[in-house]
Amino acid sequence: MKKLNGAQIMWECIIREGVTEIFGYPGGANIPIFHHLSEYPIRLVLPRHEQGGAHMADGYARASGKVGVAVATSGPGATNLVTGIATAMLDSYPVVFFTGQVSTNLIGYDAFQEVDVVGVTMPITKHNYLVTDVKDLTRIIREAFHIARSGRPGPVLIDLPKDVQVETINWEYDDSPIQLPGYKPTLPIKDQEIDQIVDMINKAKNPVILAGHGVLLSHAMSDLKDFAEKCQIPIALTLLGIGCIPATHPLNLGMMGMHGEAWVNQAIQEADLLVALGMRFDDRVTGNLKTFAPGAKKIHIDIAQSELNKNVKVDLALVADLGKTLRLLQPLVESADRSEWIDYIHNIRKDTGKRDIKNHQSEKLHAAHVITDISKLADPDAIVVTDVGQNQMWTAQYFSREKPFSFISSGGLGTMGFGLPAAIGAKVACPDVEVWCIAGDGGFQMTQAELQTLKQENLKINIAVLNNGYLGMVRQWQELFFAKNYSGTPLTSPDFVKIAEAHGLKGIRVTKRVDIEKAVLEAQNSEESVLIEFLIDKEDNVYPMVPTGAALDKMIRRPEMVP
Ligand SMILES: Cc1cc2nc3c(=O)[nH]c(=O)nc-3n(C[C@H](O)[C@H](O)[C@H](O)COP(=O)(O)OP(=O)(O)OC[C@H]3O[C@@H](n4cnc5c(N)ncnc54)[C@H](O)[C@@H]3O)c2cc1C
Ligand SMILES: Cc1ncc(C[n+]2csc(CCOP(=O)(O)OP(=O)(O)O)c2C)c(N)n1
Ligand SMILES: [Mg+2]
């Protein structure tokens, strides 16, 4: 037994959860937490905005597979976290958020910096708590980490009133089994369901696996590879599934969906069986639901019951952990030769994936060039973190990824401003790995204050800002579907080179393709973080593209080759 206060108990508990780094910002309602931090072996990274801290903790979780932790004060500190919490929620990442709260006797009185953060974050957390008695704190923190990392992972928030932080009790760690009778993160798998899946797969002539983020979250990468190789089923990836099978694996078709490759979408539309593994049929993936894969029987395996038969009605739905399921299926499915089907898909592919690059031999700098060249020069183990918009889609298309957990992107919420702070979190998690942040001029300006976090923490990452002078993805929609009415999308920027220098970092500007390599090598060889601003063609579009409401294979294709 030790005499400890709530703040100390918080630290005692989180080090027992394996936490070694946190992203936190202080304020009146969490000073006791910061007061005791130095007593514990935990590194604090101080963001410049709580949203940045939330994305850092999220990027940390995405890169490391561990639970990220972010700390903020009450009121504005807590509300600044909201976008970051929702970002982690939509992409199923385990982050535990600690917010300071006004003392329990003041709750409900509109006290200084009081916000009902439990109410605000109810729909964007997997679970949240308001601690009203310090004696509950150990149990709550243990539950929070368990809930965040088990089953379908997600963010959990703990709101800690100031009086709970300072109240002292005789404390010892209680490591008795966690009791959450209503919470069933995984369910047993029935033999009958496995038999049915095996039968459907064995009978299929033209099947496609739709591999999603759940493959990575379940650490089922090698199970997927073994399974697909045995039955010779080609694999289409969601944006967040990128990396679950190496880019160069012969069965990997590439990304599906709105900006997926045309041959991938066509294969899905023509398949006789879809095996959806740990993906949630987002509307960016399916195109018009009425015309989605009309001739295919559909199997959906997902750990979340709520995702099954939600967007796409399927023939067989199984609630289960993917790794476990694939290991059960592997010995039961027949080895098959599906070379005719695979050859057919490769035949529709031809050279269309490279068309952008071949097509753009002008003096201008094109995003496809920039990303392709960075991808070739980057360390094969590098982690690439994107922002949101055209830059994100170009990176998904042209930054070739062989390793899992090496492509980090805000998919579900599509949060502009995510890139830089998430890249900082990834670097804190993986200090020995080369980290690239690829952002647009718009998104980068949303969280660029975090450049100073890089400086203060002495972290080295490489940043590529694709400056097209527009909120490019929205401008593309305006060009194609709103009569080129560029309302609200032209965007000025500060001198990004000077911005980097003002933060004590290095800045480089590139305007021609011949200069890309030199700049990238200079960035890689620099000891400090480097920002490269690429002045790219202003009105390049991301192709292919499925217009909203269109069938998945009715894509606007990349422009034909010009002489
Ligand atoms: C501008 C923009 C354009 C986009 N365009 C595209 C596009 O063209 N193509 C595309 O694919 N996406 C696109 N997206 C991303 C899209 O919005 C979704 O985020 C993405 O499709 C989701 O992929 P997912 O279903 O694999 O991952 P998630 O949304 O993370 O879902 C993962 C699923 O796995 C399940 N799961 C988790 N753990 C396990 C486990 N252990 N076992 C089994 N299941 C598990 C979860 O329950 C969940 O259902 C775009 C996003 C933006 C911002
Ligand atoms: C926080 C936020 N606000 C608005 C949007 C809508 N949005 C999606 S992409 C985009 C344009 C992004 O512009 P930029 O960062 O310059 O990237 P580009 O598309 O030009 O590569 C916008 C405004 C968003 N996704 N997130
Ligand atoms: Mg832009």
SSE arrangement:
Blueprint: E1 2-5, H1 6-16, E2 21-24, H2 31-37, E3 43-45, H3 50-64, E4 68-72, H4 76-80, H5 82-90, E5 95-101, H6 117-121, E6 127-130, H7 137-149, E7 156-161, H8 162-166, E8 168-171, H9 191-203, E9 207-211, H10 213-217, H11 221-231, E10 235-237, E11 252-255, H12 262-270, E12 273-277, H13 283-286, E13 297-302, E14 316-319, H14 322-329, H15 339-349, H16 355-359, H17 367-377, E15 383-386, H18 390-398, E16 407-408, H19 419-429, E17 435-440, H20 441-447, H21 451-457, E18 462-467, H22 472-481, H23 496-502, E19 506-510, H24 516-525, E20 530-535
Parallel strand pairs: 2-3, 2-4, 4-5, 5-7, 6-7, 9-10, 9-12, 10-11, 12-13, 13-14, 15-16, 15-17, 17-18, 18-20, 19-20
Antiparallel strand pairs: 1-8
Bound molecules: flavin-adenine dinucleotide (FAD), thiamine diphosphate and magnesium ion.
Flavin-adenine dinucleotide (FAD) is lined by residues 91-92, 152, 212-214, 217-218, 238-241, 255-260, 278-280, 282, 284-285, 302-304, 307, 321-322, 388, 392-393, 411-412, 414, 473.
Mean pLDDT: 96
Low-pLDDT parts are none
Biggest sheet features: 6 strands, parallel
In total, the number of strands is: 20
Task: Report on this structure.
- The chain is an alpha/beta fold.
- The chain has 3 domains: 170 residues, Thiamin diphosphate (ThDP)-binding fold, Pyr/PP domains (Rossmann fold, 3-Layer(aba) Sandwich); 160 residues, TPP-binding domain (Rossmann fold), CATH 3.40.50.1220; 180 residues, Thiamin diphosphate (ThDP)-binding fold, Pyr/PP domains (Rossmann fold).
- Helices cover 37% and strands 17% of the residues.
- The chain contains 24 helices and 20 strands.
- The strands form 4 sheets. Strands 3-2-4-5-7-6 form a 6-stranded parallel beta sheet, sandwiched between helices.
- Strand 12, helix 13 and strand 13 form a beta-alpha-beta unit.
- Helix 1 packs parallel to helix 7, helix 3 runs parallel beside helix 5 and helix 3 crosses helix 19.
- The termini are far apart.
- The model has no long low-confidence stretch (mean pLDDT 96).
- The structure holds flavin-adenine dinucleotide (FAD), thiamine diphosphate and magnesium ion.
